[in-house]
Amino acid sequence: MINTTKNQTDTKAKVQQPIDRRQPFLVIDNVHKVYPNGYRALENVNLTVAEGEFITLIGHSGCGKSTLLNMVSGFSHPSEGSVTINGEKITKPGPDRMVVFQGYALLPWRTVFENVYIAVNAVFPDKSKVEKNAIVNEHLAMVGLTEAAEKRPPQISGGMKQRVSIARALAIRPKVLILDEPFGALDAITKEELQEELLKIWNDHRCTVLMITHDIDEALFLADRLVMMTNGPSATIGEVLEIPFPRPRDRVQMMEDPEYYNLRNYALDFLFHRFAHDEDA
Ligand code: ADP
Ligand code: MG
To answer: Which of 48, 35, 24 is nearest to 77 (CA)?
Structure first.
């Protein structure tokens, strides 16, 4: 059986939010976002995330996934409603919330080591150089980049660049790691490797993860809960799927489980039938 909170989906106005009873850590409370040009991107978004949860977010391109997570990172603000962490309203970006983008955002003229060091130095200016070096080295090792520490971004592969971005984000020890389609530009094998590494790191450190992806298998493999968004304008959370597979997860084992296909088909049906991209066209 698929464990989901069903909504009324006949009209968007009637979409109800999933009821969530877990211990609140990150709370997205009745968030609306209207851009200055009048575009109503999001309406009535509610989500409560527990500390240490791994949430994946899917929805069609342009539905408002980045808009939503930008309000968690603090780059953008809700027009109505609030986003809070431990009851405190998010008003600006901060080192407790680190973001990893698809485009890596590395300084190309700096080495791998320096790219991470600069972030560590900015957030922990009072630590000694030895301590900062140790933090950088620890996190480069975590993503298997010790050997590449002296290389510059143009000299390394896309997968390695994304490992640098992840190491840089984690080196700050954020409470929340926000990943906006981080593996979207990578080939399938590199992507699977990075998913495994990310899960291992998350298992060891248990920060809260919010990850946007357009890959349903990625979303299912990684998540505790999969958040599915409706289309914009006035997009909202349509349904939230609980992903019940035990951890640590084994991809092959998981994909042999008939429940995996139930969940996969359910998500596909949501995206390509119930909320097909052209439904309003
Ligand atoms: P997603 O990440 O799901 O692909 P976005 O959150 O980037 O979608 O965008 C959601 C919608 O809001 C899109 O229609 C996009 O064109 C619009 N949008 C994003 N940023 C702005 C902005 N600064 N001003 C006006 N509209 C915007
Ligand atoms: Mg986006």
So the answer is: 35
Continuous segment of H or E residues that includes residue 158? helix 158-171
Contact call for residues 15 and 8 (beta carbons, < 8 A): yes
Confidence of residue 103 (pLDDT cuts 50, 70, 90): confident
Q: By alpha-carbon position, which residue is closest to atom 15 of ligand 1?
A: 62
47-101 pLDDT, tens per residue?
Answer: 999 999 999 999 999 999 999 999 999 999 999 999 999 999 999 999 999 999 8
Query: Ligand 1 centroid to 267 CA: how many Å?
Result: 22
Residue ranges around ligand 1 (CB below 6 Å): 35, 37, 39, 41, 59, 61-67, 232
Strands 26-34 and 80-85: antiparallel
Q: What is the DSSP secondary-structure string of 204-251?
A: HH--EEEEE-S-HHHHHHH-SEEEEE-PSSSB-EEEEEE----SS--H
Question: How remote is the CA of residue 234 from the centroid of ligand 1, in Å?
Answer: 11
- The minimum-distance atom of ligand 1 relative to the CA of 59 is 3
CB atoms within 10 A of CB 244: 12
pLDDT tens readout for residues 125-154: 999 999 999 999 999 999 999 999 999 999
Proximal ligand: closest to the CA of 229: 1
Q: How far is the CA of 63 from the centre of ligand 1 (A)?
A: 7
